[in-house]
């Protein structure tokens, strides 16, 4: 049975080979055109072309639209035109932030002579004598320590206050000693001298005095010792003594 099956296969193959050979004159019928396909995607951009030749002006009138498309060479700068009218004022802007405080200015200088407003005038001093010797009689008391002296109207070396601002002043002194002490306030603003004494011989002697004076410019005030009932032993005493002399302006003359 297998032999017959193989023979049939060989016969079939031979018949196919014989039918594949065709006469050269035989031809098939052309097929019909197919349906158009879908449009393809855009291609990639092409390379940049070469620079064109400069445009040439044609003879005769040229269309203005063409002139606008033609780029000419830059001309010379023209003259400045007349300034136009001033524009309208704009709206006021909002206030800015406060600035930083400035640096302090330099100290002012004294005007020296002339009138001084009462709210600006000032003068005050406080000095101390710490020398243990008894102050010489009828001489200006001098001082070793300056506590206050604004603005340098008192000379501690000479013991004099020199009026710079005319006005009314108050002067006062205080002294502490183991012996009797006599002191007086002296000024060339008046002939009379205002003196004070303490002759208590039992304890420390504490002496105070004061006076209000009307002073003109350059008039002087000072403190001096004078003799009253002191003994030679008291005048030669070298135990601790202190004298404090103060003065200040109450109010300046405004006229």
TrEMBL record:
It is found in: Secreted, Extracellular space, Extracellular matrix. GO terms for cellular component: collagen trimer. Residues 1-22 form the signal peptide. Residues 38-62, 90-124 are annotated as: Disordered. InterPro entries: C1q_dom, Collagen/C1q_domain, Tumour_necrosis_fac-like_dom. SUPFAM superfamilies: TNF-like. Keywords: Complement pathway, Disulfide bond, Extracellular matrix, Glycoprotein, Hydroxylation, Immunity, Innate immunity, Repeat, Secreted, Signal. SMART domains: C1Q. Transmembrane segments: none annotated. Residues 118-255 form the C1q domain. It comes from the Eukaryota. Its main location: secreted. GO terms for biological process: complement activation, classical pathway; innate immune response. PANTHER family: COMPLEMENT C1Q SUBCOMPONENT SUBUNIT A, EMILIN ELASTIN MICROFIBRIL INTERFACE-LOCATED PROTEIN ELASTIN MICROFIBRIL INTERFACER. This is Complement C1q subcomponent subunit C.
């Amino acid at each position: 049975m297998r032999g017959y099956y193989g023979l049939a296969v060989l016969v079939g193959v031979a018949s196919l080979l014989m039918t594949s050979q065709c006469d050269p004159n035989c031809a098939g019928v052309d097929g019909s055109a197919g349906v158009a396909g879908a449009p393809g995607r855009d291609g990639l951009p092409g390379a940049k072309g070469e620079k064109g030749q400069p445009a040439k002006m044609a003879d005769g009138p040229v269309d203005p639209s063409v002139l606008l498309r033609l780029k000419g060479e830059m001309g010379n700068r023209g003259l400045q035109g007349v300034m136009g009218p001033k524009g309208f004022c704009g709206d006021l802007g909002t206030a800015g932030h406060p600035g930083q405080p400035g640096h302090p200015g330099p100290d002012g200088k004294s005007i020296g002579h002339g009138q001084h407003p009462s709210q600006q005038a000032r003068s005050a001093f406080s000095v101390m004598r710490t020398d243990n010797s008894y102050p010489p009689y009828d001489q200006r008391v001098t001082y070793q320590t300056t506590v206050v002296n604004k603005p340098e109207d008192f000379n501690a070396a000479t013991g004099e206050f020199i009026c710079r601002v005319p006005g009314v002043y108050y002067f006062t002194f205080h002294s502490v000693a183991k012996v009797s002490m006599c002191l007086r306030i002296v000024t060339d603003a008046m002939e009379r001298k205002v003196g004070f004494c303490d002759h208590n011989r039992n304890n420390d002697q504490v002496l105070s005095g004061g006076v209000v004076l009307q002073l003109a410019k350059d008039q002087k005030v000072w403190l001096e010792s004078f003799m009253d009932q002191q003994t030679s032993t008291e005048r030669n005493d070298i135990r601790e003594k202190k004298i404090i002399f103060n003065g200040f302006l109450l109010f300046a003359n405004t006229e």
